[in-house]
Design goal:
The chain is of the alpha+beta class. The protein folds into six domains: about 55 residues, Orthogonal Bundle (Helix Hairpins); about 230 residues, 2-Layer Sandwich (D-amino Acid Aminotransferase, Chain A, domain 1), CATH 3.30.470.30; about 100 residues, OB fold (Dihydrolipoamide Acetyltransferase, E2P); about 80 residues, 5' to 3' exonuclease, C-terminal subdomain (DNA polymerase, domain 1, Orthogonal Bundle); about 80 residues, 5' to 3' exonuclease, C-terminal subdomain (DNA polymerase, domain 1); about 70 residues, BRCT domain (Rossmann fold). Strands 12, 13, 14, 15, 16, 17 and 18 form a seven-stranded antiparallel β-sheet that branches. Strands 2-11-10-3-9 form a five-stranded mixed β-sheet. A four-stranded antiparallel β-sheet has the order 5-4-7-8. Strand 17 and strand 18 form a beta hairpin. Helix 1 packs antiparallel against helix 2, helix 12 packs across helix 13 and helix 16 crosses helix 17. The protein is globular and about 85 Å long.
């Protein structure tokens, strides 16, 4: 292939990968492979003196495609030139002093403040036009909404999710295939939400890394002084150190030693001239400013061999490939598997069983395949779903090829339903993890909910399963037998009817006084008459209960369950018609659910947000400036502590 053809191929590959990465938060290739191809394109452009149209070396990003409003940046946001050689960084710095800081791996945001208040927040987008995400930025964990400075301030920084929060969020997602690939992808999706309530729940943080505008403030020609001033304004500023040619190599090593325990994702360092005027005098190229340069970690790579590719089916029908390879030591830990993300990534790597591959940890954290040394391309894409054996199909979505199961009744798609069915507030079957459920589904032991209560048919097989034994089997059976004795409320909630949560199930069962026949055959009119049940809930409930397949499932369950007789709560319904919202930590109850149960036993209702229909907000920190407290004050809703609530229970007066 001649150089011009190779350059066009590289341009096409890099543009497709970048479009997927920046616009849809999906990956067509690893960062390692992208950097290698980018470097090759740059080298060919220098050798030939030719730069093709649409070359990624000449642009910053891609057009935004979400439904968020667009905003043009006052000044273009450029990429940084980069190196992986510490000596090259020292040469670049020369005789000048520099500021060395983390290169954070999140989503770049520009904040503008006017008269001390946050006016707008805009994503980087394509470097010239970004997405307006002001409402989302207002619920970031650490963005100051008001600052002392009263002029116009423009500050750039990175929206980030810590590794700790990333792991917590992933741990709450039951299906392995639906977990987020890395903090950057999770953060990108969280920042660009159309519903900022989701953004708030993701604990996004903002770390400032550049001051763009702050008129009439004397920074004494110092970048470090700018950072110090931003901290005084209430911003979290990227960790930074002053360096010179004599100290920069040792400081790079210090940063490298911290990466394993650093709270945020980082893919390298940034070196900026400390002297602002000198840096600005250097100007910029079409793509890079000349006053700063990025240093990317020299990834530790190890050669290993592909043992197998595991295909994991999910409830959405998506079937994801995971590479299993001979274990290797990387960055101090043993790794033996890496996600291949989708069919496109797998095909780009030309994977085959037995191939020699080089693996690394992206940002020194997440295992990835850097390159395939053999590229045998001997791997067959499964033509059957690994769970139900129905035909699969490859779907091309904006250039990203993914594998799906075509069977709408695939058991893998129902795994989420089973995990919900056995969860604590539903049937409460202790010891049935998602992994165990997946094995039982895979082996055909369970095909519908009632099968869980007939597992004794497979006793010997279960006892001989890996990770099981006689004791584990007996513990599981004991837990199932305990769950067999349940309430109608738990059963209705466990079915997973759309829009019908535990509180709604309680309302429905209470309205029909526990009459199973009436509960199962309720029509929309009778459901809507229940305070707290709306048309959408009623419609979902009736559609579910009238489905012949669901009726069969429920009949089979009723044949194996022991439903407790319904009894009216002995507690006086003192909160009848009252709606509460609970926020913050609790002291007198084990958790919020226990407090919620007390309210519901006495006829009250508990919601997750403060609205005009809320009667009380329970928050032990009644004077805090939390969003729920502010909303309650705005709507003139009483904010009460647990002590106030307990006095209400006892018939006393609250302090509000």
């Amino acid at each position: 292939m001649d150089q011009r053809k190779r350059m066009q191929t590289l341009v096409d590959q890099l543009n497709e990968a970048a479009k997927a990465y920046y616009s849809t938060s999906q990956e067509l290739m690893s960062n390692y492979e992208y950097d290698a191809l980018y470097d090759e394109l740059e080298r060919l452009e220098k050798e030939t003196g030719v730069v093709l149209s649409n070359s990624p070396t000449q642009r910053v990003g891609y057009e935004v495609v979400s439904e968020l409003p667009k905003e043009t940046h006052a000044s273009p946001m450029l990429s940084l030139d980069k190196t992986k050689d510490p000596d090259a960084l020292r040469e670049w710095l020369g005789v000048y002093e520099g500021l060395l800081s983390w290169k954070l791996d999140g989503l770049t945001i520009v904040l503008t403040y006017t008269n001390g208040s946050l006016e707008k927040a805009v994503t980087r987008g394509n470097g010239e036009v970004g997405e307006l995400i002001t409402n989302n930025a207002r619920v970031f964990d650490n963005i100051p909404l008001k600052i002392p400075y009263q002029g116009t301030l423009v500050v750039r920084g990175e929206a980030l999710i810590t590794y700790a929060d990333f792991e917590k969020i992933n741990a709450s997602i039951e299906l392995e295939s639906e977990k987020y690939k890395n903090p950057r992808n999770l953060c990108s999706g969280s920042v660009r939400q159309l519903n900022n309530r989701i953004t708030k729940d993701r604990h996004v943080r903002f770390v400032a890394f550049a001051l763009v505008q702050a008129n009439d403030v004397d920074f004494h020609n110092s970048r470090k002084a700018q950072f110090d001033w931003l901290e005084e304004q209430g911003f979290e500023v990227v960790a930074h150190r002053l360096v010179n040619a004599q100290t920069i190599i040792s400081e790079i090593e210090n940063y490298a030693n911290q990466i394993a325990t650093f709270a945020y994702p980082s893919d390298g360092l940034v070196l900026t001239y400390e002297d602002i005027a000198y840096g600005e005098s250097l100007g910029r190229t079409a793509k890079f400013p000349r006053d700063a340069i990025a240093f990317k970690w020299q990834d530790e790579t190890k050669e290993t061999r592909i043992k197998e590719v595991e295909w994991s089916a999910s409830r959405t029908g998506l079937i994801n490939p995971v590479a299993i390879f001979e274990p290797v030591e990387l960055e101090g830990t043993t790794v033996s598997r890496a996600s291949l993300h989708n069919v496109s990534v797998l095909e780009n790597l030309h994977i085959g069983i037995g191939d020699r591959v080089r693996v690394y940890k992206a940002n020194m954290i997440i295992p990835q395949i850097a390159e395939n040394l053999d590229q045998s391309d001997r791997l067959e894409i499964p033509k059957e779903c690994p769970v139900c054996h129905a035909p699969t199909e490859i779907v091309d979505d904006h250039g990203i090829r993914t594998l799906y199961c075509t069977n709408p009744n695939c058991l893998a798609k129902h795994l989420k339903s089973f995990t919900h069915f056995v969860s604590r507030d539903a049937m409460n079957v202790d010891g049935l993890s998602e992994a165990t459920l997946e094995k039982f589904i895979d082996l055909g032991y369970i095909q519908e909910f009632a099968d869980l209560f007939n597992l004794e048919r497979y006793r010997l097989r279960i006892e001989n399963m890996e990770g099981f034994g006689k004791k584990s089997y007996m513990n599981l059976v004991a837990s199932i037998e305990k769950a067999r004795h349940t309430t109608l409320v738990r059963l209705i909630y466990a079915l997973g009817i759309p829009n019908i949560g535990l509180a709604n199930a309680k309302l429905i069962v209470k309205h029909f006084k526990g009459d199973i026949e009436k509960v199962l055959s309720a029509n929309a009119a009778s459901l809507i008459s229940i305070d707290g049940i709306g048309e959408i809930m009623a419609d979902a409930y009736v559609r579910y209960m009238s489905d012949p397949e669901h009726q069969k499932i429920i009949a089979h369950l009723l044949a194996v369950l022991d439903i407790e007789p319904y009894t009216e709560s002995s507690e006086e319904a003192i909160f009848e018609g009252k709606t509460f919202c609970i926020t913050g930590s609790v002291n007198h109850y084990k958790n919020r659910n226990e407090l919620k149960a007390v309210i519901e036993e006495r006829g009250g209702k508990v919601t997750g947000s403060v609205t005009s229909k809320t009667h009380y907000l329970i928050n032990n920190d009644t004077t805090s400036n939390s969003s729920k407290n502010r909303k309650a004050k705005e709507l003139q809703i009483p904010i009460i502590s647990e002590e106030d609530f307990i006095r209400m229970l006892e018939g006393g007066e609250t302090n509000v």
